[in-house]
């Protein structure tokens, strides 16, 4: 019984980690540029050092615009 309880808690903990990384969105406020152009508010992934979870990365898509990612996450820019 103890093993089942521990296994269940590990599964729930794992789902909690996954859900927190999926829902990690940051709202970017709209603003006006110096030229007077208005940029509408949007969403982006929360800042981190991982490149493969960004909307613009190949294999991902932006759920708000529907665009597929085009950036290669493994190409280093020196």
* Strand element count: 4
Q: From N to C, what is the helix and strand string? A: HEEEE
Enumerate the strands of the largest sheet in spatial order, edge to edge or round the barrel: 1-4
User: How many independent structural domains?
Assistant: 2
Q: β content, as a range?
A: 15-25%
- The radius of gyration over CA amounts to 18 Å
Mean pLDDT: 77
What does this structure look like?
The chain has 78 residues and is α+β, with helices and mostly antiparallel strands. It folds into two domains: 2-44, no CATH class; 48-78, no CATH class. The chain has one helix at 2-22, and strands at 25-28, 31-32, 38-39, 42-45. The strands form two sheets. Strands 1-4 form a two-stranded antiparallel ribbon. A hairpin with a 5-residue loop joins strand 2 and strand 3. It is elongated, with a radius of gyration of 18 Å. It starts with a helix and ends in a 33-residue tail after the last strand. The model has no long low-confidence stretch (mean pLDDT 77).
Secondary-structure map:
Blueprint: H1 2-22, E1 25-28, E2 31-32, E3 38-39, E4 42-45
Antiparallel strand pairs: 1-4, 2-3
Record keyword descriptors for this entry.
single chain; alpha+beta; 27% helix; 2 domains; 4 strands; two-stranded antiparallel ribbon; two-stranded antiparallel sheet; 1 helix; 78 residues
Short structural description:
The protein has one helix and four strands. The protein is of the alpha+beta class.
């Amino acid at each position: 019984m103890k093993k089942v309880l521990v296994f269940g808690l590990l599964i729930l903990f794992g789902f909690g980690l996954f859900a927190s990384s999926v829902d990690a969105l940051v709202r970017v406020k709209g603003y006006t540029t110096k030229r007077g152009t208005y940029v509408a508010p949007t969403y982006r992934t929360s800042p981190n050092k991982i490149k493969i979870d960004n909307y613009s990365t190949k294999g991902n898509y932006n759920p708000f615009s529907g665009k597929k990612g085009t950036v290669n996450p493994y190409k280093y820019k020196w």
